[in-house]
Specification:
Layout lengths: L3 H22 L9 E8 L4 E8 L4 E20 L2 E19 L4 E9 L4 E10 L4
Antiparallel strand pairs: 1-6, 2-5, 3-4, 3-5, 3-6
């Protein structure tokens, strides 16, 4: 008969390995093709993110429309800091582009206010500038 302590430890190790594998499996991928998403419902004060892995010099175009105003940003994490190269408050539409200045996971985030909102968005990889 196996030792119950060893059996419990083996279960914890197995669960930890599964959690690590699942976390790695859902890591943001490189943006290689345009993304178009329509009719995303945001509950009051809810947020959604679309994240992607970019290399230094990668360019990304974005466009969105919201039925009611949302806060929008493009951000990435640098240690404990959150860097926001693009921010817009209470807007119903926005379009633009940004270039990654470093290899990083960048996220586009939309956050609704008290009324909630519905958004459509497009994200497009653009060729690097020489």
């Amino acid at each position: 008969m196996r030792d119950p302590t060893r059996r419990a430890a083996a279960g914890i190790v197995a669960a930890t390995c599964i959690a690590i594998l699942v976390g790695c499996a859902t890591a943001p991928e490189r943006l290689v093709a345009p993304i178009a998403v329509f009719g995303v419902e945001l509950a009051p004060y809810a947020a959604i993110e679309q994240c992607m892995a970019l290399e230094a010099g990668d360019r990304v175009g974005y466009r969105f429309d919201a039925k009611l105003p949302v806060a929008f940003n493009v951000h990435f994490h640098d240690g404990n800091a959150v860097i926001l190269p693009v921010t817009r408050d209470r807007t119903t539409e926005e379009s633009g582009d940004f270039s990654a200045d470093r290899r990083q996971v960048y996220c586009l985030t939309w956050e609704s206010g008290a009324e909630g909102s519905v958004i459509d968005y497009r994200i497009t990889p653009w060729p690097r500038q020489p």
